[in-house]
Design a protein that fits this description.
Layout: E1 2-4, H1 7-16, H2 21-28, H3 38-41, E2 45-47, H4 48-58, H5 62-66, H6 79-82, H7 92-114, H8 132-143, H9 151-164, E3 168-172, E4 186-189, E5 193-197, H10 203-219, E6 223-225, H11 239-253, H12 257-261, H13 274-284, H14 288-297, H15 303-333, H16 349-360, H17 366-373, H18 380-383
Parallel strand pairs: 3-5
Antiparallel strand pairs: 1-2, 4-5, 4-6
């Protein structure tokens, strides 16, 4: 069966995702004995089965390609039209996630305007010429919540605190069996949206990513990236990335930076100050490897000793993951059911209050509330009365 498609919409997606026709053909021909050709996908009439293969790449729904209205290439529509180069070479999974939240941001902005809700930026814009330490201690007064020793709960508290200053924080969750996982940890979309990848095995990493992206928000510099903490000491980092890393460190370290600065040299003669590093990590949610990386950047630990410590941390992590896999396999063999479900992303209080107000104002209906907040209909009464 063939249908008439609007080729301009497919070409728009190729531009948006910075894909060539050849790239797309490679993806949609996977598993076929006879690969598809340009004529197969770029004709006015297209086989529905081919269109379904195309939509597996872009996830727009088949109706999207049949719409006679041509989409407009606009800087407002996507960060990919506002910026050409990113800190990370983005894979298709990452681009899908970014476009998903870009569309959500635009939709939420429209809902806010219709419901007459003000979610404009409320914090000033800084520059890389501003001292990240000074800025961090200033912003801590506005955004640092009461410390919670449980990383997940501290992250939740940060998201709530950010909401008070009209900063929307979203999480995206990737299931273990997802084919193309996004090669990013987080990103900032102007004017006030931060998106984080759920780090179920390391909320401290997610916390650092959040504060790093807060740095981008404060500089008003959009970015999409994979954050490798060991790049703290990489002199090839841009001024913006270095500023955001430093800002994140000082914001999280707070008063514990004084104790950290007292470290003169870390080596075998003082056991690398492990006890102090462990204590600072415990009270700040800065990971131990992040602190050792900071010491490397300050030349207070040698590259050789740093590599030994990092290798030790990596090995410990590998063994933990190995044990988890062994336990999963054992549970499978003994017939024990795994009750674990994919974690639900945390909802920002700012998102919840915006959706509630829009509902009360008649801008959206009950279905929209459930869909936006990712809740089942039986949970609706908890959010709207």
């Amino acid at each position: 069966m063939k249908v008439e498609q609007n080729i301009s919409r497919l070409k728009y997606l190729l531009t948006l995702y910075k894909m060539t026709v050849e790239d797309l053909l490679l993806s949609v021909s996977e598993g076929l004995k006879k690969p598809l050709t340009k004529d197969d996908i770029l004709s006015n009439e297209i086989n529905v089965s081919y269109l379904k293969r195309i939509d597996k790449v872009f996830n727009k729904g088949l109706h999207y390609y049949l719409d006679p209205k041509s989409p407009e290439v606009s800087k407002d529509a996507s960060i990919f039209f506002r910026k050409n180069k990113f800190a990370t070479e983005l894979n298709i999974g990452a681009k899908k996630i970014v476009n998903q939240f870009e569309e959500f941001k635009i939709s939420l902005s429209a809902i806010s305007k219709l419901a007459e809700i003000n979610i404009d930026r409320s914090l000033p814009i800084f520059s890389v010429q501003d001292d990240p330490k000074v800025v961090a201690f200033k912003i801590r007064k506005e955004l640092y919540p009461d410390f919670n020793p449980i990383p997940k709960e501290f992250l939740r508290a940060l998201i709530s605190k950010f909401a008070e200053k009209n900063i929307l924080v979203f999480e995206f969750v990737e299931t273990w069996n997802k084919k193309e996982k996004a090669n990013i940890d987080g990103f900032f979309l102007a004017p006030n949206v931060i998106v984080l990848k759920r780090q179920q095995s390391s909320f401290r990493r997610e916390i650092f990513t959040l504060i790093h992206e807060l740095g981008h928000y404060l500089l008003n510099e959009e970015e999409i990236e994979e954050l490798d903490i060991s790049k703290f000491a990489n002199n090839k980092l841009s001024d913006i990335e270095r500023w955001c890393n430093d800002f994140a460190y000082y914001f999280l370290a707070g008063e514990y930076n004084k104790a950290f600065e007292q470290i003169d040299k870390a080596d075998g003669t003082n056991d690398y100050h492990f006890e102090l590093i462990e204590s600072i990590s415990k009270h700040t949610h800065l990971s131990q490897i992040a602190l050792f990386t900071k010491l490397l950047f300050q030349r207070k630990i040698s590259q050789k000793n740093y590599n030994t410590i990092k290798a030790d941390f990596d090995e410990r992590y590998r063994l933990r993951q190995e044990e988890l896999e062994k336990q999963k396999e054992l549970d499978k063999q003994t017939g024990k059911k795994n009750e674990g479900r994919a974690p639900k992303p945390m909802n920002s209080p700012l998102l919840v209050s915006t959706i509630q107000t829009a509902f009360y104002e008649g801008v959206i209906n009950e279905y929209d509330v459930c869909k936006t907040l990712n809740i089942s209909p039986d949970k609706l009464e908890k959010y709207v009365q």
